[in-house]
Specification:
The protein is of the alpha+beta class and about 850 residues long. About 35% of the residues lie in helices and about 25% in strands. It is globular, with a radius of gyration of 31 Å. It binds a DNA duplex (14 and 17 nucleotides) through α11, α15, α16, β28 and α20.
DNA sequence: GTGCGTGCCCTACC
DNA sequence: ACCGGTAGGGCACGCAC
């Protein structure tokens, strides 16, 4: 039989000692399909150079005899081939050693410590990755599958009857049909609209499993439910009331089974909702049979706990947003509330939490139900917002959505590389061992980006250039990678000084730079197409390539990477520094004045020059840049402000504010954008910066600051404006320095408010009793609900004045003197 | 006792 | 441990005077 099929969730199983891929997806009519396939299982043994042919023959025979009987499994070497391959760009002879079971490859590799074998590779990819590499069944891509339907057959131990799918098919062959699929004899474009079910729980205790789950909300297309066992007489229709917590859990399982989603989605559900549900289910002896095969979710614990459900892709949306989007977001935390505000213009429902034993009132319960339901509604909307990105990213890297959505960027880069190796006939490099990682981490940091020290001042008519994919283009231009690094100097090679030593890279294109060259080209192509005719798919594609290209540099410097190469990472930074410094000099020589530069951007004064002249300068600079290096115009700005550091006279780096010619304000590094300053100081500074950029002088801004200071002195400031928020980056006990936020965290712990690594600690600085000696800020720390009055001196001297004083200093105004009422030196006013 | 350099810590920039 | 280095700046600590 034939069917259309789109793979979503990848798994595998053993049958009679062999591995089989078990892939769950849909056909074009929306039926749930399980596809069973297999692929050859093998690892590589790279031979020593010049290992004689007759010895190879003997080695092959010897290896062919390897048999293992481990873990109740019999595995043997099935076949050995001698092949010409590449490893790190070098031509090698390698043995392709086929074995019975993927799980035994490690043990077989251990038996290959034989003369003539230099390296063993390809046994540490995991079966799913191995399968996708071999058979190229790319996630979320349409295929036409030909195979044998399993009808209550005994094949594979009766797998088809144990799986809750519409049908199960054993693959003979398949081919991609991205252009469209055969439906009733016609070629039609195939769409995949995944079935998504979102869930969210509410409980009294935050600690996993320690309280009762009061309710579970479930939201899907045209489906909204809150399951609870708390009685509420006038509950809205969406509330379904069960007898007790156990029955509620049973009902939850029932609905998941009934709806049978492709994606079961939560927000922080890896770390909270699913582990909590599992703990409560265990307590009540409810079998949490959510998997399509009736299995329970598999939880991995630890720092990055994750929760896998067989056949249903469980997505913790928080994790995908964190890796793929957080660096481009405005939100200061990744809370559902804040992220929803940024992407949906919606927010969580207001609800004042109390312990459920104190909630008697029906309307309060109903608000609670509404609150819980809305969390799932928001999460569903967010999933829909990010679905195209998840899909395109998954297709491009060939990493299944379950893994992709949890990976850090380096893992996704690595998946992309590994899945592209075959085109280069490359044997995959192994994962670093624990010891290797430890060694790499000990190495001291290499020199990074160039940052130009600005001269403080208010500038007018500014242009800004930046390099497109600066580091990515540098890697490509100078062929920087592990496989192109030369052990000894060569004449015709790229070279640059790193740590006082010259490093050399071959000019013969390596696979790593080649892969990134294609990536940058595709990114460019999709960006142009997107600009010409925008749609979500192009946007997602363009964004995926952008993320990957930007991560290439970090990847090579990341100690856990298969293709880690400190020299390449250091050389990338060095070449990028050299390039930008040369461009800065050229701009200065062309009768412009460079004001500031950081890594890949250059801001300069274009006073007396037209925009057209600037563009022709850009063209000239580009014509002189090496390789694929390219500068583009970021924007024209009417004004820009640079200040000194707090310490005094030198210009502060990474701190500036500009207003573009179409009045868009860009503020970088200032306290305004730092979440560890109180709202009041941030708001005042933001106003001051904006006013100065708009007016070109400080007069209105100064008046405003004076007003605010009066308000502070009169205690007219609201409490929410003086809260200081700082994240706890490690367990409280590990802090050597006891700073204010650590004190606040300790106070919270005393009150049994859960504080863990990553918690955002909120506190304010209060007045202390008269006569009490207090030097340290931490002695004045109070939690928000602690009674007390804010410390006027602290908020003036340590928050507001520091936030604005070096801005006014640019105009020759000493704000401290003005405030204290002493002699005024307002040079700027004359 | 005060002042200042230093290290820890957090969060920004790119 | 889950991409890199560069940088500003608050706070506590400890030494010098």
């Amino acid at each position: 039989m034939k069917t259309n099929f789109i793979p979503v969730d990848y798994d595998y199983f053993d049958f009679n000692g062999k591995n089989y891929a078990k892939i769950i997806g849909r056909d074009s009519s929306g039926k749930r399909v399980c596809v069973i396939d297999s692929c050859p299982v093998f690892l590589w043994a790279i031979l020593e150079q010049g290992f004689p042919a007759e010895k190879i023959k003997k080695l092959v025979q010897e290896i062919g005899k390897i048999q293992l009987d481990l873990k109740g499994r019999q595995t043997k070497v099935e076949k050995v081939e001698v092949l010409d391959k590449n490893f790190l760009g070098q031509k090698v002879k390698a043995l392709k050693i086929y074995a019975t079971n993927y799980k035994d490859l490690h043990d077989i590799a251990d038996r290959l410590a034989l003369p003539g074998i230099e390296k063993r590779r390809g046994y540490d990819l995991g079966y799913t990755t191995h399968y996708i590499m071999e058979k190229k069944m790319i996630p979320l891509t349409w295929y036409e599958i030909e195979g044998e339907m399993l009808h209550n057959s005994n094949e594979f131990g009766g797998i088809d009857s144990s799986l809750d799918v519409d049908f199960c098919i054993k693959v003979k062959s398949f081919k991609p049909i991205e252009g469209g699929g055969n439906v009733g004899g016609n070629l039609v474009p195939l769409n995949f609209k995944p079935k998504v079910l979102v869930y969210d729980i509410e409980c009294d205790e935050i600690k996993l499993g320690e309280g009762e789950i009061l309710m579970i909300s479930l939201v899907s297309d045209n489906f909204k439910k809150v399951l609870t066992w708390k009685k509420s007489d006038s509950a809205p229709d969406f509330v379904e009331c069960l007898k007790d917590e156990a029955e509620m859990l049973e009902k939850f399982i029932e609905y998941v089974k009934k709806i049978s989603p492709d994606f079961l989605v939560g927000y922080y559900s890896d770390g909270f909702d699913l582990p909590y549900i599992k703990a409560r289910a265990e307590l009540h002896k409810v079998k949490l049979a959510l998997g399509l095969d009736g299995s329970q979710p598999r939880l991995t614990t630890g720092f990055d706990s994750s929760a896998k459900i067989k056949g249903i892709t469980h997505i913790d949306l928080l994790r995908f947003i964190r890796t793929a989007f957080s660096q481009y977001m405005e939100s200061e935390t990744l809370s559902l509330d804040e992220v929803s505000r940024e992407f949906l213009g919606d927010q969580k429902k207001k609800f004042e939490f109390r312990h459920s034993s104190k909630i008697k009132d029906h309307s309060e319960w109903n608000s609670y139900f509404e609150y819980c339901l809305h969390d799932s509604v928001l999460t569903l909307k967010l999933f829909e917002k990010f679905w195209q990105d998840l899909k395109e990213f998954s297709k491009i890297t060939r990493e299944p959505p379950y893994t992709l959505s949890r990976n850090g960027m380096s893992s996704n880069v690595e998946a992309f590389i590994v899945n592209n190796l075959e085109r280069f006939n490359e044997i995959p490099e192994k994962r670093a061992t624990y010891d290797e990682i430890a060694e790499r981490r000990k190495l001291r940091a290499y020199e990074g980006a160039f940052v130009l020290e600005p001269v403080p001042g208010l500038y007018e008519d500014i242009a800004m250039f930046d390099f497109t994919s600066s580091y990515g283009s540098t890697i490509v231009t100078y062929n920087l990678s592990k496989s192109t690094l030369l052990e000894s100097p060569e004449k015709n090679a790229y070279h640059i000084e790193v740590d006082g030593k010259e490093v050399y890279f071959s000019k013969k294109q390596g696979f790593f730079p080649e892969i990134f060259k294609e990536m940058i080209e595709k990114r460019k192509k999709y960006k142009q197409e997107l600009k010409a005719k925008p749609d979500n798919v192009k946007k997602a594609r363009s964004n995926s390539y952008k993320l990957l290209a930007n991560a290439a540099y970090g990847y090579q410097g990341f100690f856990g990477a298969r293709y880690y190469c400190r020299e390449a990472a250091a050389a990338t930074a060095a070449f990028a520094r050299k390039t930008i410094i040369e461009v800065i000099e050229k701009i200065n020589k062309s009768d412009y004045k460079v004001i500031y530069s950081d890594t890949d951007s250059i801001a300069f004064s274009r006073k007396g020059k037209t925009e057209l002249e600037v563009l022709s300068l850009l063209k000239k600079l580009n014509s002189e840049l090496p390789g694929i290096m390219e500068l583009e115009l970021e924007d024209f700005f009417t004004r820009g402000l640079w200040v000194t550091t707090r310490a005094g006279t030198i210009g502060a780096k990474k701190k500036y504010a500009m207003i573009s010619k179409d009045d868009k304000i860009r503020i970088r590094g200032f306290e305004t954008v730092r979440r560890d300053w109180c709202q009041l100081a941030r708001r005042v500074q933001d106003y001051v910066l904006r006013q100065i950029l708009k007016d070109g002088n400080e007069k209105k801004a100064l008046e405003y600051v004076k007003e605010i200071i009066q308000k502070v002195k009169k205690r007219e400031i609201q409490k929410n404006e003086i809260v200081i928020r700082t994240q706890l980056k490690k367990p409280i006990s590990e802090y050597k320095a006891i700073s204010p936020h650590v004190i606040a965290a300790k106070k919270m712990e005393e009150r049994k408010i859960p504080v863990t690594m990553g918690s955002l600690i909120e506190y304010y600085i209060a007045e202390v009793q008269k006569g009490k000696k207090t030097k340290l800020v931490r002695e004045k720390v109070k939690l928000l609900d602690e009674k007390g009055e804010y410390n006027i001196e602290y908020y003036l001297d340590r928050q507001i004045i520091p936030a604005v004083e070096n801005i006014f200093q640019v105009f020759g105004i000493d704000i401290k003197q003005i405030i204290s009422g002493k002699k005024q030196q307002t040079l700027g006013e004359f």
